[in-house]
């Protein structure tokens, strides 16, 4: 097992998250790359990484599937959620790839320069998912009703839910 602390500073892990996999860059307190690895976004793979670097600090970008990864990692290490728009250095980079994004996140974390998104406590997160799902279903049902009324041909009107059609 690799020691998650080099000297008095914790190891920093930057994770560039995708739908099925993440790319991790692990740096020491001097900013030297310890390891770079591509891992599957499965509980087993994430736990293996987390156990190997237990006690480390990690940062992931807020993406659509960050919650599962965050939930697994927070049991083993301190995890921060980077605000994607405020972490502009990655978005504005001329050369973009998974390795560079993960390294940049790790270095920003090491320098304490991560613009964080708020992550509510675990109990609240568990309540949010059903609430958000219900809200989305209600909005979809409302849109379906509007489309049904417009499709009756009473009013010749374009799709009111797209910017392109509303600007006509």
What is the chains' assembly state?
single chain
Computed Rg: 21 Å
Largest sheet: 5 strands, mixed
Helix/strand/pairing class, anyone? alpha/beta
In CATH, what is the homologous superfamily of the largest domain?
YqgF/RNase H-like domain
Helices and strands, in order, run as: EEEEEHEHEHHHH
Strand order of the largest sheet: 5-4-3-6-7
Number of strands: 7
The 3D shape can be described as elongated
Strand content: 15-25%
Supply the CATH architecture of the largest domain.
2-Layer Sandwich
Range of helix content: 40-55%
Number of domains: 2
Describe the structure.
With about 170 residues, the protein is an alpha/beta fold. The chain has two domains: about 5-110, YqgF/RNase H-like domain (Nucleotidyltransferase, domain 5, 2-Layer Sandwich); about 120-165, no CATH class. It contains six helices and seven strands. It has helices spanning about 45-50, 65-75, 90, 100-110, 120-150, 165; strands spanning about 5, 10, 10-15, 20-25, 35-40, 55-60, 80. A five-stranded mixed beta sheet has the order 5-4-3-6-7. Helix 1 (about 45-50) packs across helix 2 (about 65-75). The longest helix is centred in the last third of the chain and has 30 residues, at about 120-150. The chain is elongated, with a radius of gyration of 21 Å. It starts with a strand and ends with a helix.
């Amino acid at each position: 097992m690799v020691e998650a602390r080099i000297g008095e500073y914790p190891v920093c892990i930057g994770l560039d998250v995708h739908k099925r996999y993440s790319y991790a860059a692990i740096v020491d307190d001097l900013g030297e790359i310890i390891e770079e690895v591509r891992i599957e976004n499965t509980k087993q793979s994430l736990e293996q990484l987390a156990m190997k670097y237990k006690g480390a600090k990690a940062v992931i970008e807020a993406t659509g599937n960050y919650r599962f990864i965050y939930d697994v990692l927070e049991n083993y290490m301190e995890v921060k959620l980077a605000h994607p728009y405020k972490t502009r250095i990655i978005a504005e980079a001329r050369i973009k790839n998974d390795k560079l994004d993960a390294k940049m996140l790790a270095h920003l974390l090491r320098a304490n320069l991560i613009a964080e998104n708020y992550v509510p406590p675990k109990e609240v997160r568990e309540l949010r998912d059903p609430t958000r799902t219900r809200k989305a279903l209600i909005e979809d049902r409302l849109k379906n009703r509007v489309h049904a009324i417009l499709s009756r041909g009473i009013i010749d009107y374009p799709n009111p839910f797209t910017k392109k059609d509303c600007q006509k």
